[in-house]
From TrEMBL:
Stored PANTHER family: BLL1145 PROTEIN, CLEAVAGE AND POLYADENYLATION SPECIFICITY FACTOR FAMILY MEMBER
Originating organism: Methyloligella solikamskensis
Name this polypeptide is given: Ligase-associated DNA damage response exonuclease
EC numbers: 3.1.-.-
SUPFAM superfamilies: Metallo-hydrolase/oxidoreductase
Length: 338
């Protein structure tokens, strides 16, 4: 299939990626009448949607985070459940990114396109694992699409945090973690490593953790850190939004060890710029090896690349004989969850 054939039914307009025969956008970056939402992070799930299709979990998180800005007509679709929208067949496959995250599979006139949203292939106890879907066109993210980004073993990264807690029992460990996905993954990894003490949360993280627990993700003993006495938090692990770990909020903590859980912590300069004492290399996105592996395994002859480090990945795609294209969609910022 030639690129122009894909262009005839999947296009980029002022709202983002648009499926013409289905009449819907995928993760539009502003209000839209009809949309499919891959997951509930803020740069993919915007307020002001009319009819919106997503997993039950994504819709619940959107309601929690957006309130009155949540979709007016939400429709839940289970993984693997096929829905006909006009002449287009649509279904969702797990993306392995965060709870409820999905790849959007679109089939029309014998051709299959997969829009990945954000994804990872590392094991994650807080969400359904990534599912490979063979396709003709694969639209991939490229957040960490440079060979320097290889994320490593999550258990080893959590081990660094636990060793530091043991080494500095008089200090609070303040861990910056994005509220959707990263916070819950850090908590669950701590539990799997045998940490059974209370974990303390900044107020901004509590509602999303409660939503995870409603969907059966047991996070153990969680307690609000805001307003708690400094001595109570001495020797404890406190999770907060990355922005809170270095602002006035953290000053109430007892001589805190500042940590940050992010794929960007692979770059030491980033850690220094943020004043991070304990970088934890933990990402909810595919690293270079996973991106290359996934592109190969889909069997797609054409790859569209969006929101991230596009140039190196496009070069690799072209060197393997596939057709590559940078979509350059606007509206996908670098999030703190990476």
């Amino acid at each position: 299939m030639q690129p122009k054939v894909f262009d005839s039914w999947l296009a980029v307009d002022r709202k983002g990626l648009y499926c013409r025969p289905g009449g819907f956008h995928i993760d539009p970056h502003g209000p839209a009448e009809k949309a499919i939402v891959t997951h509930a992070h803020a740069d993919h799930a915007r307020p002001g949607l009319g009819a919106a299709l997503a997993t039950e979990e994504t819709l619940a998180i959107m309601q929690t985070r957006l309130g009155d800005g949540a979709p007016k007509t939400p429709q839940a679709l289970a993984y693997g459940e096929v829905l006909k929208i006009g002449d287009v067949s649509v279904w969702l496959a797990p993306a392995g990114h965060v709870l409820g995250s999905a790849q959007v599979v679109i089939e029309w006139e014998g051709v299959r396109a997969v829009v990945s949203g954000d994804y990872k292939r590392q094991a994650d106890p807080t969400c359904a694992p990534f599912e490979l879907v063979p396709c003709d066109l694969f639209v991939t993210e490229a957040t960490f699409a440079l060979p320097v980004f290889r994320h490593g073993d999550p258990a080893e990264e959590i081990g660094k945090l636990l060793r530091s807690v043991e080494q500095f029992p008089e200090r609070t460990h303040a861990v910056g973690a994005y509220g959707l996905g990263k916070t819950q993954r850090v908590i669950k990894l701590l539990r799997e490593a045998g940490y059974d003490r209370p974990i303390w949360l900044h107020g901004a993280l509590q509602e999303t953790c409660a939503t995870y627990e409603r969907f059966g993700i047991d996070l153990g003993d969680l307690r609000p850190a805001t307003g708690e006495k400094r001595e109570t938090l001495r020797g404890e692990i406190v999770l907060g939004p990355p922005s809170a770990i270095t602002d006035r909020w953290s000053r109430r903590l007892a001589d805190p060890v500042t940590a940050f859980a992010s794929g960007w912590m692979r770059v030491r300069a980033r850690a220094r710029q943020r004043g991070v004492e304990l970088p934890i290399v933990l990402s909810d996105h595919a690293d270079w090896d996973e991106l290359v592996q996934t592109i190969e395994e889909t069997g797609a002859g054409e790859i569209w690349v969006t929101h991230g480090q596009e140039d190196a990945l496009l070069h690799h795609i072209q060197m393997t004989g596939k057709r590559g294209r940078a979509l350059r969609l606007i509206g996908f910022e670098e999030e703190e969850d990476q």
